[in-house]
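Need tokens for this chain, all 169 residues.
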Amino acid sequence: MPAVLFYILSLVMLAAALLVVLQTHPVYSVVFAIISFVSLAGLFLILGAEFIAAAQIIVYTGAIMVLFLFVIMLLNLRREDIEERGVSLMKTAGSIGALVLLGLLGGVLAGKISLGPQGPFSQEVIRQAGNTQAVGRALFTDFLFPFEATSVLIFVALVGVVILAKKKL
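Here are the structure tokens for all 169 residues:
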């Protein structure tokens, strides 16, 4: 049963992620991103990482997507604005990105690209302490600077969008 659920959630996530990129209306892209994030949270639940699944729902699906929707609606993008901004340039950049992604995926599957060393937490340590403690310890010790830098970056981006939107009024 978990294998069938894994394949269903994987297909839903891949289809939604593809529709995020192919969608021309930004609000629809955000909705498909939310579907993709919820499917990813389901995959985390299947793997037994309940904390990561809850964080995925709360942080990404809740906070980040609401922030994206706020920014999109604040910018008040119209279909004419999107279409006149060089759709061919976007398609070219998307095609190059897809080729790079396929190349990296092929390299990982062929074993030519190393995925890196395993972390300090083995399966036994995670079972004893729990995945919430393992994630918290790693996040607030080894990855404290990237965690804080990400929050500052999101705040600066939000301030920039507000400034850009103010100039249009």
